[in-house]
Amino acid sequence: MHRRSSATWLALCYAVLVVYASLYPFWPWRMPPSLPWPGFVGLPWPRYWGKFDIWINVVGYWPLGLLCFSAVIRGSGSLVRALLLTVVGLPLLSFSMETLQYFLPGRVPSLADFLLNSAGAWLGGLCAWAVLGLGGLARWNGWRERWFVPHSAGALALLAMWPVGLLYPAPLPLGLGQLFPRLREWAELLLENTPWELVPKELTDDLPLPPGLEAIAIAMGVLAPCLLALSVARPGKRRALLVLGAIALGVTTTAWSTVLNFGPDHAWAWLTSTTEPGLIIGGVLALLAAFMSRRANAAWGLVVLTALIALMAEAPSDPYLLESLQFWEQGRFVNLYGLAQWVGWLWPFAALAWLLYGVTQSDRPGPPPAGERPVEAPSAGEPSAGERSAGRSEGQAVRDGPHEQSLGENPETTIDR
């Protein structure tokens, strides 16, 4: 049975982020007054470039090459197609992005960027090819079969994107989804000096959340990805390991984000008397959720994500954050045109949409976990093995046959009923 790969979703999302980073700020578009020879099909060599520009162009395309190669192979594509996409398709994407920068005054097209992007894509494809040759794909398939149900690619892709959203400092630790305040700011700018002009928010509205609500929001930030993972996890003791792993990943990524943005001396400054109870409450609730069914975890995930988005809409942003990012050199990577910030804004909404889709789906058959022998359906009118050993009559076997469980009657879905 063909299974959709999470690498496909991750490759598509990462390609969108690459286009965003290449064409930011998307305005104003204009025809360049002059073009170097041979015009649109040529790229100039840059006059100035720094170390940051070199490694960010390579590192930026390395995951895209890795994911695109893996997506083709995981999607039952041939090795030739995977190599063609990585070796030819991704450099063409980079060349297109650099050429379009001619029409954006704020961007500078560069032949060096194109070459570095191509090298990063090829390096990513080479790493994926090496992993394939070492049997990494087969090991991943077996691990996924044992831990997760079929049709879980979307959830796994979201879980992989979750740490990326945590890289950009949120108003509260692990508090993603602060999109509504940004939408209001954009609406104020768009409707300024019009009959529909919005009244700007007063400064008194930007008061911090009370400590109780702040702890609840942090607990929701811990609980949301755990419920998403549990909604696609197979029953068993592995669920507790998934929860503990998700909590450890969230704490580690938050500390790493603090190091990148504010310096090594502030790695654990976010652990306060309010943060710690929120982490503990969220962790305990996530461990208790490991005993619930997948459909129950999905339903509670919808509630938790909705509450998290509502609380984050009321949390004020740090007015000194942008200044800190400009001062700390490594913050330039985290704040690369706000990519990590966009992921942090949109992640809860994407997880909410996926859970809402999954919880409304009917059961669909799927393969059993690796290592388990499927139950064979008896032929029409033929007694089962247990019936033959017990010497049952053929008539009784026919009557009991419809009650025997077959492979098609043991569905594996993304979320249980």
Largest sheet entry: none
Number of E-state strands: 0
What is the overall shape? Answer: globular
Strand content: under 5%
Write down the secondary-structure element order.
HHHHHHHHHHHHHHHH
Residues in helices, as a percent range: 55-70%
Report mean pLDDT, rounded to a whole number.
78
Structural class comes to: mainly alpha
CA distance, first residue to last residue: 22 Å
Radius of gyration: 26 Å
- Helix tally? 16
The stretches of 5 or more residues where confidence is low (pLDDT under 50) are 362-366, 369-417
Q: Which tags fit this structure?
A:
single chain; 417 residues; mainly alpha; 60% helix
Structure at a glance:
With 417 residues, this protein is mostly helical.
Plain-language structure description:
With 417 residues, the chain is mostly helical. α6 runs antiparallel to α14. The longest helix is centred in the middle third of the chain and has 25 residues. The C terminus is likely disordered.
What is the element layout, followed by pairings?
Layout: H1 6-23, H2 51-74, H3 79-100, H4 111-133, H5 136-147, H6 153-167, H7 180-190, H8 211-230, H9 238-262, H10 275-289, H11 294-314, H12 321-327, H13 331-334, H14 339-359, H15 385-390, H16 394-400
Helix pairs in contact: 1-2, 1-6, 2-3, 2-4, 3-4, 6-9, 6-14, 8-9, 8-10, 8-11, 9-10, 11-14
